[in-house]
Amino acid sequence: MPWPTAAPAPQTPFDAVAAGRQLEQVLAALCPAGFHAFATGDALLGLVRDGRLMDHDKDLDVVVPMDEFARACAHLMNLDWQPAWIPVDAVNFRAFVHRRRQLTLDLLGYTAWRSCSMLVLILMRVSL
Length: 128
Known about the structure:
Strand content: 25-35%
Largest sheet: 6 strands, mixed
Distance between the termini: 15 Å
Number of strands: 6
Number of helices: 3
Order of helices and strands: HEHEHEEEE
Structural class: alpha+beta
CATH class: Alpha Beta
Protein name: LicD family protein
CATH architecture: 2-Layer Sandwich
Organism: Thiorhodovibrio winogradskyi
């Protein structure tokens, strides 16, 4: 997927309730398509702590296994999410803007392995 060449337009004020509905829709669309997606970052913190997204958040944060990352990026574009410019070139991080709602979504890929009976998750925000 090519990198967008321009920064996204300024974002409209964050509506936590509408964004929460959008997060539910994204996860509900990814699951039957075979993706193992879940909320992460501030989105997950708000859901766990308050049962909803935080009012002062700015985007949705979703994570998928790294071996599903490229397909998930392509699938999001079929769901009206367009790639957004980001200042970081990481192998496991892409930002998207919803075409109609001007809401942003950060998609991260993770790698997991078992070591010493412990599950270890690595979020590789590494620039190439």
